[in-house]
Structures are given as C-alpha cells and as structure tokens.
Amino acid sequence: MGYLVKEIFYTLQGEGGHAGRPAVFCRMSRCNLWTGYEKDRHRAICTFCDTDFVGTDGVGGGRFATADELADAVERTWPHETRDHRFVVCTGGEPLLQLNEAAVDALHERGFEVAVETNGTRVPPKGIDWLCVSPKMGSEMIVTEGEELKLVYPQDGGNPEQFEHLDFSSFRLQPMDGPELEANTRAAVEYCMRNPRWRLSLQTHKYLGIQ
After folding, report:
1. For 109-134, b where at least 16 C-beta lie within 10 A, e where not — what string?
2. Catalytic-role residue among 15, 18, 25, 64
3. Can 25 be counted among the known catalytic residues?
4. Is 192 one of the annotated active-site residues of the chain?
5. Catalytic choice (7, 15, 26, 46)
6. What global pTM score does this model have?
7. Where does 66-124 show beta strands of DSSP type E?
C-alpha cells in the first residue's frame, strides 16, 4: 500500500511520559479529523491542531513503497551506531491511517522501541510498545487502553473525569496552545493539583526551541 510521510527527524520527545528522551519522529501525512488546510479548519472535528502534516515535503519525508523502506529511512535518521535505546515516535496527522503491523515489525527488526501518538479513532496494529491516545471531542474514540491518555485541555465537552474508567497506565493534561496558553496552563495545573490521578504534560520542545 505504501506510506506517505511528511517528515522524519531526530530530536528529543517533548511531551508526555517519555519527555526528554532522544527519538526519531516519523510524522505521517493525512488525518481523519482535519484536512490540514486552513481553509477547512472551521469545519474540522479538531480545530486546534498546531502541526503541519500535509504532503511529503518535510525533511526526510517522502513516499515509501514498503515497510522495509520506511524502517530503513527511520534507521538512517538515528545518528548512533549502537542499537541500544533506539526509539521512534510515529505521529501525524493520524498515523494509524497508515501504520500497520508490517511497519511495526520492520522497525522492531531494526532495534526500535515503537511509540505511537493517535487520536484513538482507529484500531492500532499489534506490537506497539507505547500507545499514547489524545482524545478529540466530537470524534468517536474506540481505543480504550494503552500506556498513556493525554488530554489537550480545556476542550468543550472534554471533562477529564469521563476518561478515568479507561484502561491507561497514566493520565495527563496538556494545556492547549494558542493565545490562551497561559490561562490554559493555570487551569491544567489547578486541575492536576485537585485531582492527583492526572499529571501535567508540557510541550517542552517549544520551550527549548527544538523541533
């Protein structure tokens, strides 16, 4: 089927349970909640996305015909000869529109621990090592278990309590970026302090000025 990838790059994971960890980011093109074009944002299910996932023109991006070609591109981006601590984050857009078991297996064969960041509207393939679900209000969330649930906060209709019955190892609130970031951060901090099951997630890569 092939894989459309916006970009592949080496950085530090900026948010969530692996914040600060060196990782290759494999950003898949396409999403099922927004086209990625500003002209369509007003009718998107997710109206606050801050990521460019359109096309295949980013650094390391392209069209990869097979799972092995995709995994080879990820491996070339990892700058260390050792296979120790290899970590890839498959994100988007919505990576589960494309990422399949063959790709996960190919990445494992090259020594990578595979993390996925998804909106939870598609069934994940087998073998994912770290599954992070970020629910978007207005969509049908069908993934109810994983390592991490990361709720962008606040969202209309998105009370954190409604997710606490789900089978995730950790629950995190991430302040929504944008003109209200300062107020959203205060609100998220206050919520976590009142509800200690939730932990604060910050987009540290933006504070550090890295990709």
Report:
1. eeebbbbbbbbbbbebbeebebbbbb
2. 25
3. yes
4. no
5. 46
6. 0.96
7. 87-91, 113-118
